[in-house]
Write a structure and sequence with these properties.
The chain has about 220 residues and is mainly alpha-helical. The chain folds into 2 domains: about 1-45, Homeodomain-like (Arc Repressor Mutant, subunit A), CATH 1.10.10; about 45-224, Orthogonal Bundle (Tetracycline Repressor, domain 2), CATH 1.10.357.10. About 75% of the residues lie in helices and about 0% in strands. It is built from 11 helices and no strands. The protein has helices at about 5-20, 25-35, 40-45, 50-70, 75-95, 95-100, 110-125, 135-155, 165-175, 190-200, 210-224. Helix 5 crosses helix 6, helix 5 packs antiparallel against helix 9 (about 165-175) and helix 7 (about 110-125) crosses helix 8 (about 135-155). The longest helix is centred in the N-terminal third of the chain and has 23 residues, at about 50-70.
């Protein structure tokens, strides 16, 4: 299969990123590693940010492939644990890629699918009646905790990551946003969260868009 100039540039940039971190990704170094002139890089990506977006997408391709391979089971909380483990493993094994993908204020387009996957797991927990807090808040808490653990360990002195910290953080955030069983989620806020998740999945035509929005707002208030 013929490798395009764009693919050569992205692969060259990815190798430089792995070997030398973000600082190694100068346009001159990437062009030289790919065997092209610098103007070719700019014609292909527009500017350095365009190149970084392409490299981040390259990293997300591997990460998302692993996420999809996990699939879904009949226990969404267990799926959340598996997703957490994969996320942390990727971040610690590919720190340079992770910093490019998640460690910057700019949210790259390739990240949106990963965020949607996490939200889908949280929505399934809500649908099962096992979510303590609104879906959006739960997704933010899980993501922020996982990212915080990874960035903390990346910044720590060289050595093996502390598995106790990884597991403790995972179980702490899961306990904060979920219940043990659907039966224990019989309180009104959990019911409101489950009802909103069900309505978002199958809105039906019994309510007008305005009524649906109003009901969603009321359910959010009850959930809080």
């Amino acid at each position: 299969m013929t490798v395009t100039t764009k693919e050569r540039l992205v692969r060259a940039a990815a190798e430089l990123l792995l070997d030398g971190g973000r600082e190694a990704l100068s346009t001159r170094a990437v062009s030289a590693a790919a065997g092209v002139q610098a103007p070719t890089l700019y014609r292909t990506f527009g500017d350095k940010e365009g190149l970084l977006d392409a490299v981040a997408s390259y990293g997300f391709k591997s990460y998302l492939s692993g996420k999809r391979a996990l699939g879904e089971t009949d226990d969404p909380v267990r799926d959340l644990r598996h997703g957490w483990n994969l996320h942390v493993e990727f971040g610690l094994s590919q720190p340079a890629f992770y910093m490019l993908m998640y460690g910057e204020p700019r949210v790259r387009e390739a990240r949106q699918e990963a965020d949607a996957m996490l939200r889908r797991i949280i929505e399934r927990i809500a649908e099962a009646g096992r979510l303590r807090v609104p879906v959006e808040l739960a997704a933010q808490l899980v993501h922020a905790t996982g990212m915080g653990v990874i960035l903390s360990l990346i910044a720590s002195p060289p050595g093996l990551p502390n598995p106790d910290l990884i597991i403790a953080a995972r179980e702490h955030v899961i306990a904060a946003v979920t219940t043990d069983t659907a039966e224990s989620a019989s309180d009104i806020p959990s019911r409101a969260i489950a009802l909103k998740a069900a309505l978002e999945k199958e809105p039906g035509d019994a309510l007008t868009p305005a009524e649906h929005a109003m009901l969603a707002e009321w359910l959010d208030r009850i959930a809080r």
